[in-house]
């Protein structure tokens, strides 16, 4: 009895000490202010942290940190590794602030880690219903941070707010009804006093949307549907009442321009995916970039890359804000490496099409772009009930998959795009429109992957001139994101599990490290106490077993590997 009391007393004292330590730690945290978020990592001091999904509101996925360079990157080695113990794809991008790293794993597991040691400060696992409607796995792509809060969207279409020091749940709001097929997988974006996020579930007859919520309470401020309903502008781009089939989900993180108070957000496929017979028309605002008033969600302009999409060319690829020269004048532009195989450059103020360039090697669905950026579709590659005679290129996974980020370096003025080279056979079939049920309207056939012909590369491309500077070729499609640094490096990873560092000027491979599982995550970098770290998530489920004629090592890792130079 006395010993039991001693054990209980020790536990109480230990718990009390931990709570006191957390309280002291919380009191030392500096709030992440709007000014810090606006600064992003544009300067070396700001680059100590990584505060937004894309590193800054412009979404460059670039850091000016230059301690790790082409001259010393060969010495890069693991500083620490965190195993989640959760099976599933690691697709996210960590956020780092004031010595703490926030990392998400599959099934809405969220971790607050010490960014120097990897020690767990707290862990939250969202409890979800057993009847989720998911198209493409239980991935989560990250969090947003503001003040002393962390925000995460969930697979059952909720938005959660946490105390960042302790992981205490502060509020939980429902974005939409998961039973109808709604979900949320993207990292939210904080702008002013709002947290902004879009939905997933475009395969389930759900009507896509982007919505803004109060940072303090979670109350919805505005909602912008990406498929117009009856009586709304551009509903005529959907034949009859086909707009009810939905689509145009907004499941990647957008960009923001504070000077014009404009959000730039991309949207996905119309539904049903492969059968467009009932939805004749362009099907706005699917496969588009939208410019929204940040305070109201009002659409200022739109640009549609793939009108009447029947290939699942989900245009949710990230959008970036870059300054370009046009007719001798400096112009703010939006650029996107679209899933359909083209890089687009648009006037950020008006949405005017400035340039489109093919960045993949295998493209046949379109014969080119007209003066307004509209593709000239080759009818040979429009799916029929009998299937295509020849494979369409790219296949539905796209030239750059929507969940795979790319980077921009202001040092080279190039985009660094991880590319998938894989074509596929398609056939359309009868489509349904019942909410909550899959609404594919077609089937997939053979592909380059199943035939052992798929491959990938990192492509360095000047978005203004359209010139390709170099390609780094890999044996497998590149589905891991890219990071550019002030040290002249491009970090990425491949499906064989290697973390890679390339020379930004030449594409030469300078360093690689085997992480144990395929890489689909988005690398980041940060600096603490004068030491630069590079964090790369590892875990795709390994190289697809269906890839023939190439090595098969199906592993199911789920880890964050953090590298640094030896001290």
Radius of gyration: 23 Å
Shape label: globular
Please identify the top-level CATH class. Mainly Beta
Sheet with most strands: 5 strands, mixed
| Category from helices, strands and their pairing | mainly beta
Helical content stands at under 10%
End-to-end Cα distance: 51 Å
Query: Count the helices. How many?
Result: 2
CATH topology: Methanol Dehydrogenase, Chain A
DSSP strand tally: 37
Kindly report the name of the CATH homologous superfamily.
Quinoprotein alcohol dehydrogenase-like superfamily
Share in β-strands: 35-45%
Strand order of the largest sheet: 1-31-32-33-34
The domain tally reads 1
At CATH level 2, the architecture is 8 Propeller
What does the average pLDDT come to? Answer: 91
> What is the chains' assembly state?
single chain
Give unreliable regions as ranges: 1-27, 542-552
Write up this protein.
The chain is mainly β. The protein has one domain: Quinoprotein alcohol dehydrogenase-like superfamily (Methanol Dehydrogenase, Chain A). 6% of the residues lie in helices and 35% in strands. Strand 3 and strand 4 form a beta hairpin. The relative contact order is 0.13.
